[in-house]
Amino acid sequence: MYQQGRGSAVHTISTTNVATLLLIMCLVVGLEHVDAASFTVGDSSGWSFGAQNWPQGKRFRAGDVLIFNYDPTVHNVVAVDKEGYRSCRAPASADVYKTGKDRIKVVKGLNYFICGFPGHCDSGMKIAVNAVLYLYCMPYVSVCVIPFHL
Hints:
This protein is of the alpha+beta class.
């Protein structure tokens, strides 16, 4: 009687181990890798006046990269908050990009950018990009996992 109970416990552990191993294999084999996308702000026109409507119809994910191409002698890119976007004013602590070929990774939620040159933001040189958290999904199994690096 003692041996029988012990044998069934071993059988239960073995079944659990097999089920766990199968789940891990399904996760590894079925994962679709989703790379971050790169978007050139303003497309071929680059970062310029009227860029405010550029994000419309595009889907952004956290980790995507926005590429700002512009003439650094007449423009820049300033990362601001909602109030800075609305008022076209950047706080002193804002990140200012000035290379003319800036690559900025977006984070989950709303990301706001303006041109800090006088009058440019008021003339439509600003964008708001909403980036969603993305998931890795498996095509053959209805399971999704959140990547560890986010």
